[in-house]
Give the backbone structure.
Amino acid sequence: MILMEQRELGRTGRDVSVVGQGTWQLGADWGEVREADAFGVLDAAVESGVTFFDTADVYGDGRSEQLIGRYLKERPDARVLVATKMGRRVEQVPENYVLDNFRTWNDRSRSNLGVDTLDLVQLHCPPTAVYSSDAVYDALDTLVAEERIAAYGVSVETCAEALTAIARPGVASVQIILNPFRLKPLDEVLEAARAAGVGIIARVPLASGLLSGKYTEDTVFAPEDHRTYNRHGEAFDQGETFSGVDYATGVAAAAEFAALAPQGATPAQTALRWIIQQPGVTSVIPGARSVEQARANASAAALAPLPQKTLDAVRDLYDRRIRAAVHGRW
């Protein structure tokens, strides 16, 4: 196995690789992935030094969790922290975020993953009011006391939600969209998380593939791909698809970003390297649908840090092309 830089994941007290493996693609919403291909992706990630998998109970209605559980049973030598999420399989109202439901969701995820205790459970972008509920955190503390989970965190849509969660002493980590097309967390969240000892998991790092530089305005995605059916937030928060950026705007900006890639690196690897070196980031979790993608993503950890002129160019690109397009929402 390749050795990769490890960082402590906030209040979990455990180290994870700076590049993790996101597994939304292995469940659903990105087109079909065969089981053998999914195992190949996970194996390539582990062999490339990845020690962190991120999943959710809603990815493929549990398929992603089940695949990870079976894979790790076959690879007992793999030292991987698995983070899952809960809460998106029910109507999104605060009243559903209660201890009895948490136990039910937890039982299902533990069964899917084949473990007695989940390493890390994250609330999966719940209604904003949930982040401020004392009862919710009491319930999560109960799951820890019952040894159903080892630690808990939150996945958020907005910086305000992240800051609310960071203030809670039991929150181990915050998962937030962060990439060269989404800079607001740099200015509002990362320093607060560092000061509080909370880990930052950067998701949607390639803006749903835009930052790979592979797409044009004429690219057609499959009907079951969220990049087709959720461009304007029809199914879930618009920020999850292309980071909330209008597709045409994103394609044009991605072409400009691609020119910033250093020699020998792809635009996708450049975007991942940019995220890794942001102070306060613990791990970035790109997805992959092929062995080649998983290996290429992991290799971003070995790239030299981007020079200041490139960091400045990313900020300039965001200010010129992206900031107005997202209206400061996220």
